[in-house]
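In response to reviewer comment 3 from the previous cycle, which asked for concrete evidence that the modeling workflow produces usable outputs, we include below a single protein chain processed end to end. The sequence was submitted unchanged, and the resulting structure tokens are shown without manual editing.
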Amino acid sequence: MGRIDIDEYRCKGCGICTIACPKKLITLCDKLNNQGYSPAEARCQEHCTGCALCAEICPDVAITVFR
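The workflow returned the following structure tokens.
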């Protein structure tokens, strides 16, 4: 099982990771971070396979996946 860690201060809310996740575990948050962006957040992490596609595609290097 994997675990997704998203740095909300680095995330600019582009949403590319939400498309890349094959399990659709990542969504954009309703709250804004300190830069005024809606960061991504990982939900239902018990279903994460640890594929790390979200981390590979993140242009802000805001996602770390632990396997």
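The chain is about 15% helix and 20% strand. We consider this sufficient to address the reviewer's concern, and the full set will be provided in the supplementary archive.
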